[in-house]
Structures are given as structure tokens and as C-alpha cells.
Amino acid sequence: QVQLVESGGGLVRTGDSLRLSCVASGSTTGAYAAAWFRQAPGKGRSFLAAIRGSDSRTYYATSVQGRFTISRDNDKNTVYLQMNNLKAQDTAVYYCAADAFDSGRYAAAEYAYWGQGDQVTVSS
């Protein structure tokens, strides 16, 4: 069992940057894939980025490629999402996800473990 806790969200202005963190605890030995998703009000959960544990290969949704960067520090069991040039449409609850199957997958259903979510609000 893996527990995930996100932090770093908040209220920012258009054009600002934020870095979200996701700390994993529990059965974190071995490589595992991690990903970030978000869910805006009234919408489904959408994929943003994923990173493999074995080689840190990254995958991005087209909508955020170039603005968002996913990274990880395996020594700290932490995954990050650096978000730059934030826009009002980035307002959402951001979720960290992880799975022992070490692959960069895009579907939320492929991830067994989830954090509680962290609100990001971008005001114009």
C-alpha cells in the first residue's frame, strides 16, 4: 500500500508559477510510475504528465507540454509538477497518482494509488 500527499497548491495570478509536490510513503520500494491529473469543476479527471520510476522518462498531455514539467527525487520519495505561465483555465484540483506497474500511462484507471488532491486557483 502506498500513501500519497500533495502540497504546494494555492491562489496565484495569471502568468505565475507553482510547484506541486507529492510525497509517497508506505510500500515505496522498487520502481513505480507516478503521474499528475487534474479535475476542474464539472469536468472529468484529465491526465497532465507521467514519469517512470526506472529511468524517469516523462510523458505529457499536449495541452501542458512546454509549460508543465514533471520530475522526481527517488531519495525523497517525492514527485514534483512545476507549472509555469499559469492560466485561468488551469484552475482545478490537482491529483498525484502512482502505480507499481512502471509505465507512462495516460488513463486514470491505470493508477492504483491516489492523493487527496490539492486546489490550484489562477485568477486573471
Would you give an account of this structure?
It is a single chain. The chain has 124 residues and is mostly beta strands. The protein contains no helices and 11 strands. The strands form 2 sheets. Strands 2, 4, 5, 6, 9, 10 and 11 form a 7-stranded mixed beta sheet that branches. The chain has a 4-stranded antiparallel beta sheet with strand order 1-3-8-7, with no helix packed on it. Strand 4 and strand 5 form a beta hairpin. It is globular and about 40 Å long.
How would you sum up this structure in a few lines?
The protein is built from no helices and 11 strands.
Count of alpha/pi helices? 0
Portion of residues within helices = under 10%
The span between the termini is: 40 Å
What's the mean pLDDT score?
94
Order of helices and strands: EEEEEEEEEEE
Largest sheet, strands/sense/barrel? 7 strands, mixed
Structural Rg: 13 Å
Global outline: globular
The structural class is mainly beta
The percentage of residues in β strands lies in over 45%
Number of strands: 11
Q: Which spans of ≥5 residues are poorly predicted at pLDDT below 50?
A: none
Top keywords for this entry?
single chain; seven-stranded mixed sheet; 11 strands
Fold blueprint:
Elements: E1 2-7, E2 10-13, E3 18-26, E4 33-39, E5 45-51, E6 58-60, E7 68-73, E8 78-83, E9 92-99, E10 113-114, E11 118-123
Parallel strand pairs: 2-11
Antiparallel strand pairs: 1-3, 3-8, 4-5, 4-9, 5-6, 7-8, 9-10, 9-11
